[in-house]
Specification:
Helix content: 10-25%
Strand order of the largest sheet: 1-10-5-12-4-3-2
CATH superfamily: q2cbj1_9rhob like domain
CATH architecture: Sandwich
CATH topology: Jelly Rolls
Order of helices and strands: HEHEEHHEEEHEEHEEEEHHH
Shape: globular
Radius of gyration: 19 Å
CATH class: Mainly Beta
Amino acid sequence: MAAAEQISGLTAEQMAFFKAQGYLLIPGLLDVQRCAEVRDLMWDALPENAALSRHDPSSHVGPFSEFDQDHDSLHVREGYRWLNRRLGVHPAVVDLVYGTALTGIASQLLGDTLREPVVNGTPMGSRGPAWPGGPTDPALGTQGARGVYCTLPYGGKAREPDRCHTDGHPFQLGVVALLDETPSDGGAFKVWPGSHQRLFPTFTLRYDQPRIPYYDHLPSFKGIVHNQAYLSAIDELNEQPPIECWGGAGDVVIWHHRLAHMAGHNYSNVIRQAVLGDFSTTSLDTLRARPPQGDMWADWSKAMQQSAETYSDAFARQQRLPGATSQT
């Protein structure tokens, strides 16, 4: 564990805010030197003849050229997205995401034995590309973090509206950790505060969701099935502004698994570089198919269950919550 990591855990106010809003910004949580090491791994994974060059900022503007594109589900370079899922099980990434700082917070929130990552295990995407481009859920078999996810600058691309979603695979707590400076409007993770409480009861299952299998002779439908209550809620959330989780290397946002979110659009001149990971408990297998009715925190720690969701205006402003008003 690096000395720069915070290891004291969350305060009662931080836990209360997370419970009420479904996300929590934690500046400076992770060691910046470790973040730099992971950035090095990302650049080193590019082919030697790639047009994208670390030391030529003019080459960083997307989209990827046809020459640099790669549709490998373990190392995607397509459009403006650069996803290295192989690195999700690399020792340096596992150490960064599942080190003492974040694991301690996850234990504090979830209150049960955490599923442990496997160094050099099976990375996300090992069984093929994600829907809608492929027939499989990319999270199948994942034994580490999701990987290092980058977004190239959009350059002169026209601005696009923000559109939220939720993730399909079962987990309980998500984390996005910035590996380098990410300015506002620079592709940072975006969240819709409080949306976890709105969306949780619209799901059929507590931590999972029904899927339609993929058949070659029946190609029109495949993947996740959403009901009308969920779709209507997403439409309404898309009319509301999200919170943008910009920041510097080592800054982290943790988020509830039913929180609406998106990868931000990158209108800056720098590549958004982040590592994404999930936390779940060993009891998730027995919990995931239960109905979502009742207390949505019943499976979390006693401290989370007992939290009064009370926080100050000052803290809410630190969390970039618009129109911050104390919760009582």
